[in-house]
TrEMBL record:
CDD domains: GST_C_family (cd00299), GST_N_family (cd00570). Pfam families: GST_C_2, GST_N_3. This is Glutathione S-transferase. InterPro entries: Glutathione-S-Trfase_C-like, Glutathione-S-Trfase_C_sf, Glutathione_S-Trfase, Glutathione_S-Trfase_N, Thioredoxin-like_sf. Residues 89-216 form the GST C-terminal domain. It comes from Sphingobium yanoikuyae ATCC 51230. It comes from the Bacteria.
Length: 218
């Protein structure tokens, strides 16, 4: 399988964590290389990454959650992204949506705003997105109480979504001081070997993250 990704991209981290958890080999096509960029644009004209291409099945899969689900279906291994039990699966999918829509969404908007020229920034949007992050932090603090991982005792798709979204959000609006449960969960994610590997591999690009020098708000 061929994975088109960038090492600094949060949604790509989500997929990389799943591949590393499962120990599934893949051909990396890093979107810095001109040839890789041209292949990716031809495969997925929507211009979003990650994208997975499976030449054996002739499949091109986009959307990080769907790529992780595809991996679980076609390369079953030690990592089970979606539990077999239907109710447990619903909780995993709900948590996956919470992390993508309510953590990743405001976090990406804050990054996009910071990357704009100063005169094109939107202070009201920044205030709203900081408030949105604080609101989801509070919800997660309650919902994660007593859980080892996002949806219970087992690592799942939801943790693949949680790791990048919380890691980046915490560097913009720090969460640990006021959210001990959420902070402890982020610590567990950061020391998990699959995610630690992703964090190590992104280091050469880290200076491009616009909040690398410090957060927006504490
Ligand atoms: N809904 C997509 C979102 C993917 C996404 O937003 N990827 C970002 C990188 S983290 C991207 O493609 N950015 C390029 C752009 O929006 O032009 C998913 O779940 O995979």
């Amino acid at each position: 399988m061929i994975l088109y990704y960038h090492p600094l991209s949060s949604y790509c981290w989500k997929v990389l964590i799943a591949f590393y958890e499962n120990g599934t080999p893949f051909t990396p096509r890093v979107l810095e290389d001109e040839a890789a960029l041209a292949e990716w644009q031809a495969l997925w004209p929507l211009g979003k990454f990650p994208v997975l291409h499976d030449p054996v099945r002739g499949a091109t899969i986009a959307e990080a959650s769907i790529i992780v689900e595809y991996l679980g279906r076609h390369e079953p291994g030690t990592f089970r992204p979606i539990p077999v039990d239907g109710d447990a699966a619903i909780e995993v999918r709900l948590m996956d949506r919470l992390f993508d829509n309510y953590v990743m969404g405001p976090m990406q908007a804050l990054v996009a705003d910071r990357l704009r020229p100063e005169e094109a920034r939107d202070p009201r949007g920044v205030t709203a997105n900081v408030a949105a992050l604080r609101s989801i932090y509070a919800l997660l603090e309650d919902r994660l109480a007593g859980r080892s991982w996002a949806a219970g005792d087992h690592l799942s798709l939801a943790d693949c979504a949680a790791a990048p979204s919380l890691y980046y959000a915490d560097r913009i609006v720090p969460l640990r001081a006021d959210h001990p449960v959420l902070g402890a969960y982020l610590n567990r994610l950061e020391t998990r070997p699959s995610f630690a590997r992703v964090l190590c591999e992104m280091q050469p690009w880290w200076q491009n993250f616009p909040f690398a020098d410090g957060p927006l708000a504490s």
